[in-house]
């Protein structure tokens, strides 16, 4: 069977972890979906950042609670790290203040995905999590996402 005919591959492609702050319905749905697609997920339940997510090269960092007390510090550290993907769950309007604060501190937010995920129109925790996992998978393969049809 040619590579073109193979619909999927179970070849051992290594991906970074998905680090999630904090524990809420979206984070739990994200962990379930990401685990299903073979990603390692670490959910930090403490909304103050706990012991720290400590992103490594290739990791994805998803802030599921933009109101968490340590949100600015978590984003600051993630954006300064070698994480491959940094995102925050929030509308552009709700995230604006936090992003402005980071910019005022001199933090480069050009790689920050806010709002996190692809625009699928979902409203439930599972649908929102699906859009975020889809974006992480697309980014990890250097793809923009979107329909495969031409």
Automatic annotation (TrEMBL):
Organism field: Nocardioides renjunii
Pfam family, any one: XdhC_C
Protein's recorded name: XdhC family protein
Domain XdhC Rossmann positions: 19-136
Gene3D superfamilies noted in UniProt: NAD(P)-binding Rossmann-like Domain
């Amino acid at each position: 069977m040619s590579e073109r005919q193979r619909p999927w591959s179970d070849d051992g492609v290594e991906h970074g972890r998905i680090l999630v702050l904090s524990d809420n319905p979206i984070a739990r749905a994200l962990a379930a979906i990401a685990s299903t697609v073979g990603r390692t997920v670490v959910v930090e339940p403490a909304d103050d950042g706990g012991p720290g997510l400590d992103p490594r090269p290739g990791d994805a960092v998803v802030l599921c609670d933009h109101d968490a007390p340590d949100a600015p510090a978590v984003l600051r550290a993630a954006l300064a790290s070698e994480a491959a993907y940094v995102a925050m769950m929030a509308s552009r309007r709700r995230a604006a203040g936090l992003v402005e604060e980071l910019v005022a501190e001199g933090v480069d937010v050009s790689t920050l995905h806010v709002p996190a995920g692809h625009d699928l129109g979902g409203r439930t925790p599972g649908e929102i999590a699906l859009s975020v996992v889809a974006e992480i998978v697309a980014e990890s393969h250097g793809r923009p996402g979107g329909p495969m049809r031409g």
